């Protein structure tokens, strides 16, 4: 019962982050499932089955708050589903001994990317309003879908920063569109895992509690996306993913690090993580103050003609 309650809280927290940041539900949930010894393919299958419900709830919530561009959803979601099915069948064919460190390496790479991307650069905001072409979105969706299935997450970490980096879509629209299109990816990945694994390795009670936690969080996250600082959240989530997957790799047969080496590695990551969050908070406050000054100056410029007349 305690494990199920913990999984429900994991599902809630992961969806709260995913719905407000456009990434990290699958990466966060799968990382924690791997940490408690779950078979890699079964962990990814469990998360993707839960995501069928959570992404549907999240997509509807984002749509109701006006955060979805349906043209982007169509152009990236269908190729994403194809990539997700291919990735699921590929992961299902790997042995547990091979799959566990491989998945942790993928998750670690995504975690480092999230940590650096949001800490150093925040959210880009140039070129708003320019169209996003299918020749850009289709390959992106195919690759992100494949990584999502093989890594137990990756649709958001790959898709969201790539579209944000283009600066052509408002951040809330990017997050809402990625979350809505992930519904197609979750269905395709789940079908792929059923083909490759069957259902005997999947604990449906775990699926249920992850789903319940995620569905509860989805509307809250869709509302928070306009208020929460994504830069700070990205640094926090990236650090958590890096720390957890370094732990898995250091304990794997690939490395089998001693206790002393593990302790030093964890302390180094914790220091870097704390520094990244501190820097993100400082940069967020600085840019927030700059935006406030710019808005004040704009108001003064608007009042000048009135004052002179």
TL;DR?
By secondary structure, this protein is mainly alpha-helical. Helix content is 82%, strand content 0%.
How would you portray this structure in words?
The chain has helices at 2-21, 25-35, 40-64, 70-92, 96-121, 134-151, 155-166, 171-197, 204-224, 230-250, 259-308. The model has no long low-confidence stretch (mean pLDDT 78). Helices cover 82% and strands 0% of the residues. With 309 residues, it is mainly α.
State the main characteristics.
single chain; 11 helices; 309 residues; 82% helix; globular; mainly alpha
Layout of secondary structure:
Layout: H1 2-21, H2 25-35, H3 40-64, H4 70-92, H5 96-121, H6 134-151, H7 155-166, H8 171-197, H9 204-224, H10 230-250, H11 259-308
User: How many beta strands in the DSSP annotation?
Assistant: 0
Order of helices and strands, N to C? HHHHHHHHHHH
Class by helix and strand content? mainly alpha
Rg from Cα: 20 Å
**Uncertain segments:** none
**Global morphology:** globular
Number of helices: 11
Mean pLDDT: 78
Gap from first CA to last CA: 73 Å
* Percent helix range: over 70%
* Percent in strands: under 5%
Oligomer: single chain
